[in-house]
Structures are given as C-alpha cells and as structure tokens.
Amino acid sequence: MTLRSSLVPVLVALLLGACMPRHASERARAELAAGAMIRLSGGTFRLGEPVGPLADTASYVSVSPFLLDVTEVTVAAYEECVKAGRCEPAAATVEREWLRRKARKAESRACNEARADRADHPVNCVDWNQATAYCAWAGKRLPSEEEWEWAARNEGEGTTYPWGDEPAPGAQLCWNGEGNDAGRGARTGTCPVGSHPGGDTKAGVKDLAGNVWEWTSSRTMAGTDSRGRGGTPVKIARGGGWSEVDPAKVTASIRFADLPSRRDAFLGFRCASDPP
To answer: Mind listing the pLDDT tens digit for each residue in 85-108?
Structure first.
C-alpha cells in the first residue's frame, strides 16, 4: 500500500467527522445505543416442554419474521437512554418481595449500575418498565417469549440449548455451574456481553443462555386457583443467568415469571423489532 492510498481512510474519517454535529441528536444516540440485530425467519414450533400427566401435552405456536438484538443491552447503551432523559437510571439495589435486608445488601453488590468498568456488561437491576422504556427509545420493543424461544432453539431446528443439543453446558456460557471458566460456584456477577461465543446460536445471537435472564413482553397469571380464577399478572423472563448452577436452568425452554417491579442482579433484557 502506498502512502497516498493509506491516507485515504484517514481523510474520509476526518471529512465525515467535520460534517457531523458537535452534539449528537437524541435519535443519533438511540441509533448508537441500539446495537446490531439479526433477522430471524418465522415458523411454527413447540413452545416450552410437554406438560400433562404423561408429558403428552404440547403447545404449538407460530412467530412471524423479526429482528433480535445480537447481544443483551449493555450498561453503556442503557446509560445513553438515561442521558437522553428517556430512561430511569439502573438501580443500585435489587428489589424482590420478602427479601431481607442482609440478603438485599449482599445481592446488590452485583448490580452493574452505570459503572465504567462494566460498560460492556449487560445492564441489570432494571425492572420490566425500564426495559420497555429503553427498547421504545431505541425504536424497538421487547421480544415475546415465543420469539425469544424460537431464536434460542435455532428456529426450526428445535435445539435444547442455543448452541445445539450437545454438549452439556460448561465453559461456553457465563453461568456458575460445573465446567464454567470461573469455577463452579465462584462467579459473582455478569460477564461482558458476547464474551462466550461458544454459546452463540447458529444465526449468531449471543448469550441467550446465561449472563442475565431477559425480560420479554409476555405475561401470565400467578397464584390462580384450580379453575384459573384470580391471581396476579406477572411478566415472563427467559434464558437463565450467571448465578445458575443447574444445566436445566439454561435451556432454551426455561422461563420464570414475576412482578414487573422486580429488579435482580441476574435479570436484564435485549430488544426486538419488526422487519422494515
């Protein structure tokens, strides 16, 4: 490469920089924070695991094509929304019913907040409404649990884990179980997003197992009676988090539901959107 040709990229970058406004607009900041997305096809599949006395009842659902964030929303990306005045700051404490003061203090140490040393970690300790607000600001939405599982099962392949059916979880994801790169039970918080590529889906979606559980837009009812009456509306999260030690808690079908006000150090989110 000649000296003249090597200077071309530098000159282009300087010219582009000179044309850009000194203060990015809110839309530009949203685009910056939005992150890369992957387009996934639509299809029909068996949601979750078979239920019933003989595990013979399955629920089949269909999803339309959609876009999904490659990674979980990071601390740095979420902070852009906070700076724009469209998101509440990520909390410094967890929020869970009946959690005692000592346990709250201990668990809150893993909240990433706006820490510069965790800028590339997933934002956590955010409730469902905060996650929803961020995705709306970025021009997106939370994925439904059907979309989330479709992605985690490698679309029509229906795999057990995001990376396939084998091997069992080990060093390929950010979790606390046997074979993880921190040692069983030794992990104390999240990992940088995308730092465990062995757990990627075949389409390239990262961290659908481990790191943080992820809020979805889906809801269900908790505490209903035998006839399905009464109960409390709750939101569904998917994926398993960094604190899990049981391989069953990081499968593509794992789910838990809780109040939208819940905040946990192992709970974050990613966004989805409809194709243009």
So the answer is: 999 999 999 998 788 888 899 999
Asked, for residue 39, whether it belongs to a domain, the answer is: yes
**Nearest-5° Cα angle at 222, 221 to 228:** 65
Amino acid at 86: R
Q: pTM score, two decimals?
A: 0.86
**pLDDT at residue 216 in the model:** 98
Beta strand ranges found along 29-116 (DSSP E): 37-40, 43-51, 57-63, 66-69
> Domain count of the chain?
1
Q: Where are the alpha helices (DSSP H) in 25-183?
A: 26-34, 75-83, 101-108, 128-137, 145-152
Residue pair 202/239 in contact by the 8 Å Cβ criterion:
no
Residue 97 forms part of a structural domain: yes
3 state DSSP class of 105: helix
Q: Is residue 17 part of a domain?
A: no
> Is residue 241 a part of any domain in this protein?
yes
CA distances from 152 to 10, 70, 141, 165, 203 (A): 40, 12, 18, 11, 10
pLDDT at 166: 92
CB 151 within 8 A of CB 252: no
CB 122 within 8 A of CB 171: no
Quick one: average pLDDT of 158-169?
95
Q: Which of 223, 210, 205 is nearest to 154 (CA)?
A: 205
**Whether residue 6 has pLDDT greater than 50:** no
- Residue 59 neighbours by CB distance under 10 Å: 12
Range(s) of the domain holding residue 76:
24-273
Instruction: Please report the DSSP string for 217-272 in residue order.
Output: EEEEEES--TTS-S-EEEEEEES--TT---GGGGSTT-EEEE-TT-B-TTEE---E
